[in-house]
Amino acid sequence: MRVRVLLLALIYLFGLPLAASAQAVWVEVIGHAIATDAKDKPAARRRALADALISAGMAGGVSMKGHTVVDKGRVVRDLTMMRAAGRVLRYDNLGEAWAGNTIQIRLRALVAPLEGPACGPRRHLVLVALAPNIRTSPNAPAWAATLGAELYSDALERLGRKRSVTLDKVLTTAQQPISKTKNTSMSYASLTRGDVRLQGGDTQLATWFEIDTEYGAGKGRQLVMRVQMQLIEGTGQITERTLSNAVKLPGTGPISSALGARRPKLKAKLAEGFVEILEGMIDMATCTPVAAHVRRAGNTLSVPVGSRQGLSRGALAFTENPASDFEALEIVKLTRDRATLRPLDPALPLSAFDGRMVRFVEAGK
Question: For the chain, how far is it from start to end, CA to CA, in angstroms?
């Protein structure tokens, strides 16, 4: 029976937050790498640094998952997957030394659980706000018709003030987001609407508002607002949150209808929690590593993320590959919207990375 152990290198490297998690611990780790020749030494140093970061993540524990395939009573595949359970919040380089063609790097790293609340320097979110989908029942009072648009507009204004967010595009109702690679030269609808091309590293914000009246048990006539919010990453990952608020409406007689003093309070009650939930989604998104799918074009590997998302030339990319152990790649060229990658192991074929998801960690210069 053949047993393969796959080390899935999902180590998320963040800087130290103002108040580190109480669960975080300091560990000292050592990484090694061998250079094939003098020209390979810079890449060997990155391999050693990657090795040390993986060891630091493993110091936070591991999670195991087994997968066994049996055919006619015989085990034909036995796969054990081992995943690092810690993430590196911060590390200090305690020293590095060469002995012939072998380099050793020693790090002191602050490691916290993967699911912990700690977060350091945030990735930069390039946000494309899709036009909100607002449905207001004809039974709702007239002042409720503008509530969804007002909340949406106020939320975008607040998001635009965040340092970790670039509000790149705000689409109108007539506009639709389309892939950067889609050919629309013969599309009359796209030409007349002015559809917006998305970059691979963009994050879309989609919102749905539904405002209607209901009769609650013992509460009389109520105005109910339900909101659905989605963040759609370029990788296809979707984060979704919902909100539902209700307020009791005043009477419908001529005197009650003339009294509008309660409207600001009713609006505030319906909006309660909307901004907090949306900002919480953004904060969670910016606290995750930059991620993208690798694409191969000839002898080049690249990802559709770049300096706009906060990447630097010193970042390393880690990928999962079911056919082998973890792989690491370095950035050889960086633009605003694209990074060209090169495997740290020159023996690996470029085809092994095509279509793979990579997550970036900052590893210094």
Answer: 44
Residue with tokens 């210069």: 365
Tokens 């990928």 sit at which residue? 319
Residues 80 and 27 in one domain: yes
Among 286, 320, 341, identify where a domain stops: 286
- Among candidates 133, 136, 156, which has minimal Cα distance to 207? 133
Estimate the share of the chain in helix, then strand, then coil, as percent rounded to the nearest 5. 20, 45, 35
β-pair type (295-297, 300-303): antiparallel
* Dihedral angle over CA of 110, 116, 118, 122, nearest 10: 110
How many other CB atoms are there within 10 angstroms of residue 4's CB atom? 13
Whole-number CA gyration radius for the chain: 26
A 10 A CB-CB count for 294 gives 21
CA 265 to chain centre: 36
pTM for the model: 0.71
The per-residue b/e assignment along 67-83, b for 16 or more CB within 10 angstroms, e otherwise, is: eeeeeeeeeeeeeebeb
Q: Domain span at residue 187?
A: 125-286
Give me the amino acid identity at 78: D
Strand 25-34 and strand 102-113: pairing?
antiparallel
pLDDT digits (tens, 9 = 90+) for 116-145: 555 656 789 999 999 999 999 999 998 899
Are 135 and 54 members of one domain?
no
